[in-house]
Amino acid sequence: MLTKQGIGRQATRPAPKQYEPRTGPAALRLLDQVVDLGLGGVIFVAPLAMGGRHPIGQFVLVAFVAVLAIAWFCRQCLVGDGRWRWSGAEWLVLAGAGLILLQLAPLPTSMRDALSPHLDDLLPVWSSQVEPAAQLGTWSQLSLTPAATAGGLVMFVTYATLFLIVVQRIQGLDDIEWLLRWTALAATGMAIIGIAQRFAGNGQFLWFYEHPFRDTTTAVKGTFINENHFAHFLALGVAPLLWWLRGVGDAATSSARPFSQVAVGLALAVVAVAGLLTF
Question: Residue 18 pLDDT more than 50?
């Protein structure tokens, strides 16, 4: 159980609760490793494919989330007292999915007109008010781009599943710190890639992918087409890096402490410089 005292006083907090399955049977340990590898793929691998916005990146993201979700539910089936930890966001997920499905569902004309009264003006050749010879059909969906909306439904379910599984995966303060460190490392790696591409690159993303409209010579943008999205990704790692730097400084004195402080401080500086070079 997390308490204010446990968070505010790192030196006197009780020992963090270990992730239970790590000491379980071999099958449980294997499934937990698959879950962690899936999370690692989401954090480190998926952003390499054009920030996860390229179709290949979306496929990689969906694949990693599907694998970790299957592994988690298999793990819960093997655990005798496996339970679902309700976060309260489940209702938002259902509402969001229902809203997207409503846009894809074929609706009666009266309901469609009530929900979207200007649809006939936007799609005149699909309106029943034109001559039959010029009419392409009757548009019964609220979405004007059903294929794109269906793709958005897939990504929404993917993000929602990832969030809900992470809620189940986090068992204690040590798991939160582990996830923060991974986020910090991902941001640092992306910053290094962005700076290297800008000053030692050939204009291609990751030195081999040539985008038809963008290159890496105008600004530091990492594997993102838009440098603003790259800066947003780096911003996710700033707070974990600051926390990590403070944690290293507050740790007990050891021979590795100065090196750790320098390494984390250097990573924070690289992320900050890369973010400034997106201008």
Answer: no
